[in-house]
## 1
Amino acid sequence: MKSALIQQKYHGTKEDTVAHSVAQIEKAAKAGAELIVLQELHQNEYFCQCEATRFFDYARSFQKDLRFWSAVAAEYGVVLVSSLFEERAPGLYHNTAVVFDRDGSVAGKYRKMHIPDDPGFYEKFYFTPGDLGFEPVETSLGRLGVLVCWDQWYPEAARIMALKGAEVLIYPTAIGWFDEDSAEEKERQRESWVTIQRAHAIANGLPLLSCNRVGFEADSSGTLSGIRFWGSSFVCGPQGEFLARADSENETILYATIDRNRTKEVRDIWPFLRDRRIENYAELLRRYCDS
C-alpha cells in the first residue's frame, strides 16, 4: 500500500490552503498513492492559539466540507484521511477526522478524545471530547486506526485500536515550538513526540503514519508570538523503523510503502499481545492509584 502524507503550511486563507492541498493530492495520486493523509485541521490556520467565539464559524461549513472532500477522494480514487471542525449542534463542536473511501463515500469518522488546554493550544474551549470510542475505520485498503494529535501521547488509545483490529495507526497532527524556547528544549520536545509514536508502533506491532503541519503561525490575539509548527512528519514500521521522514521547515509530500504482512512477521517474533496480563490491569481504570 503506497501512502502519502501532505505536510503543508497555512496559506493565508481557507481557499488558498485547500487549493494547495488538492494540488498535492492530485500529484500524490498520479504518483500512485492509494492512501493520503492530511494534517490536523488542515483547511484553516491553527485557530486554537487563543479563545475567540468567532472561530466557531469555521465549523458551520462542516457538511459542505464533507461533500467537497468526498468529491476529491472520488476524483482521484484514493482513501483520504481528512481533519475537520465539526458543528454537531449549536454550541457543540468536535475535532473530527473523516475518512473517505476511493468512491468518495464516508468510510467512517473519529472524534478526537484527548483534548489539550495549554498556552497556545486552547482546544478545550472549542472541542467537546469525542464519543465514538476508539473504533478502526473499515476501508477498501483495510482497517485504519485513526486518532488525532494529542491522542498520540496516550498508549491506551493506540492499544485499543490495535485490539480492535486496526492494521495501521494514523495521526493527523498540529504541534510545534515556541521561538522563545531554547534549541535544546525544542529538540527534547520533538524527539519525545517522535519516540512516543514509534513506541506505539512497536508495542502494537503496527505501521504508523504521523502527518504534522509546518510553518509559523502568529497568535491572532497577540497574547503569544505564535507557533512554529515543526513538520517532521514520518512513517514507521511495526518495529519502529523509519520508512520515511520529512524535515521541520518545508512543505512536502512524504511517500512510504506499507507492507502489512510485516505485522504478522513482527508479532510472531514479538508476541506482546499474547503476553498481556489483562487480569492485572484493573488499576488502569483509575485516574491515579493513591496510597
Note: The helical segments are 14-30, 62-76, 155-163, 183-204, 261-269.
## 2
Amino acid sequence: MKTLYLAAVLAALTASAASAETIGISMQSFDNNFQTLLREGLSARASEVAGVNVQVEDAQTDISKQLNQVNNFIAAGVDAIVMTLTDTSAAPGVSEAAAKAGIPLVYLNLEPENVDKLPEKQAYVGSKETDAGRLAGEAACSLLQEKGKAGAAQVYILMGDLAHQASRDRTSSFKDALAAGDCKGVTIADEQSAAWTRTNAMDMTTNWITAGQPIDVVFANNDEMAIGAIQALKASGLSMDDVIVIGIDATQDGLAAMAAGDLDATVFQNARGQSASAMDAAVALARGEPVEKQVMVPFELVTPKNMADYASKN
C-alpha cells in the first residue's frame, strides 16, 4: 500500500487529458460534516483535472438508494464511479456489477468488505482505521495519567454506524490501546452506536448521565458525536474539566470545541488527501492507467498544543 504523490499524479492526468470523462459520485450522506469535506474535495480535485466532469448524488444513508445510484451510473455509461459506502457489506455486489459493466470503481473513506479481493480497475482510498483508535486510546491514557485516574476510570464509547468497518476498527483499537498500557485497569462502562450523528450522541450521553454513574472519558468515533456528548455534559451542569472527551476527524467544529476547552483531543483525518487521491485514481483508471489497489492516507493526533497546525487542513 502506498500513498499517491498527488502533485505528480495531477500533473500526469492533466497532461494526458484527451477527451472528457464523467465520474459518477455517490456519497453516503450530504448531512455528515466529514462526508461534506470529502464531497467538496472530490469536486475541487475534478476541477483541477482537464476534461473531467462529475455527477454527485446523495445516498442519504440509504443503501437501496445508493445501489440505485450505482445502477443509474452504470446505465448512463459513466467513465468511473467513486463512492463512500452506506453499508460496507454491500461492496461485493457493487464491485461485481461495476466489473461486469467494465466501469472502474474507487471506494473512498469507508473500507469495503471485499477490500482484499477487489477486481481489476477497482481501488480503495482511505486511512488505516486502527491507527485512529490507537492514537485516541493513547491520548486518553495519557490524559488519565495526568489526572491520576489511569487505574480506575469509567470510559464510555460512542460508535458510528455498526455497518461500517471504521466504527468497529476505531473502537477495538481504542480499547486495545488502553489495555496494552498503564490504563489496563480502566472500565469500559458502555459502548453504543450513535450512527455518526451529533443528535444521537447527545441523547445517548444524556442517558448515561441520567443513570448516575461516573463518566471519566467519552471516546467518540468522530467529532460530530464528540460534540454531541459535550453538549449533553454541559447541559447537565457537569464540568468539562472533569471529563475527557476525544473525537476523530479534526473538523472545523471539532477544532472550535477544542479551542473552547471542551474537546481534549481528536485525530486528524485528511479529507483533502483522501478525496484528491480517490479522484486521481478514478481518472487514472478511466484512462487505462494503473493505480495502487489500496491508497492509505495517515492519521495524525491533534491536541491543544498543535491544533493551530490543523486550522485550515479540513
Note: The CA atoms of residues 46 and 179 lie 44 Å apart.
## 3
Amino acid sequence: MEPVLIVLVVLVVVAFIALIKTIQVIPQASAAIVERFGRYTRTLNAGLNIVVPFIDRVRNRIDLREQVVPFPPQPVITQDNLVVNIDTVIYYQVTDPRAATYEVASYIQAIEQLTVTTLRNIIGSMDLESTLTSREVINAGLRGVLDEATGKWGIRVNRVELKAIEPPTSIQDSMEKQMRADRDKRAAILTAEGQRQAQILKAEGEKQAEVLKAEGEAQAAVLRADGEAAAIRTVFEAIHDGDADQKLLAYQYLQTLPELAKGDSNKLWIIPSEVGDALKGLGGAFTGLTGGVNGGAVAAPSAAAASQVPTQVPIDPAAGPRPVDTEKGAARPRVDPAREYRKIDPE
C-alpha cells in the first residue's frame, strides 16, 4: 500500500506543477515570448494564456510601456578642440517584443553606445558656442539616427534630451566674464539712452514753457493796449460829448501841476509851454468873473497862493519848457533879457 500511496502523491504533485505551467497570466502593457524546444512559437499578450507544459517555455517578459533611461556624462570633443561633458536622457518604447528579444542581445546597452557615438559625430562638427546654443538641433539629429538604427530592433525612440552640457572650468570662467561685460555694456547703453531721453524731454518742456510764456505776455500786452485804447477812447468821447472849453482844460492843467513836484527825490521838473496858454485862458476866466466887482482889476491872490506862485515867470508859449528848481523852495525861471516881464504884487 505504501508504494501505491507514494506514486499517487507524486502524480498529484506533477499534475499540480503541470497545471501551473499550463496557465500563464500576462499583466497589462506587457508581453511574453514563448519557445517550444528552443524555437520561437508565439508572443503572449496581456490576459490569461494556455501553453503546453514541459514543452512550451516562456523565455522573456517585456514591458511595453515607455521607458526613461538616463546615461552618465560622456566626454565629447568639439570642433575647436574643447572637451565637454554631456548628460543625455532617452525616452524609448518597445514596439516589437520578438525583434527586441532576437535582433539584439541587449537593446539598453546598444542604445547607450549608439547615443554616445552619435553625439560625438554631431558635436564634433560644431564649435563650443554652437553646441551651447543648438540643443534642439542636437536633439533632432540624435533622434533621427536612433530611430533609423533601433527600428529593426523593435524599439521606437520618442525623445532625446540633453540634461547638461558642461564645458571646462576655464571656459566657464571666461564665459562668465564675457557675460558680465555684456551686461555692464547693455546697462551703460540703457543708462545713457535714458539720460538722453530725459534731456530731450526737459528741453522740449522748457521750449514749450517759453513759447507759452511768450504767447501769454503777447496776449497780455494786447489786452493792456486794448484796455488803454478803450480808456482813451472813452475819455475822448466823454470830453467830446461834454463840449469842454478852454477854461476847463486850463483848470485841469492847474490840477496836474502839483503831481509833477511829488517825491523827495525830485530836484528839477519842467513845465510844458502849453501851460502858458492854459494860464491865459484861466486868467481870462477870472477876469470875466471879477470884472463887475472891482472894475476890471485882477483880484489879489491870498497869502498862501502868493507864496506858491513864482515871481517873474514869463508866460510865453514859444519859450518852451522852463526848468524850475524846487530844492530851495524858489523858482528859477529862464529869463529872456530882451523881453519885458510884469510883476505880481502879493499885496
Note: The longest helix spans residues 169-242.
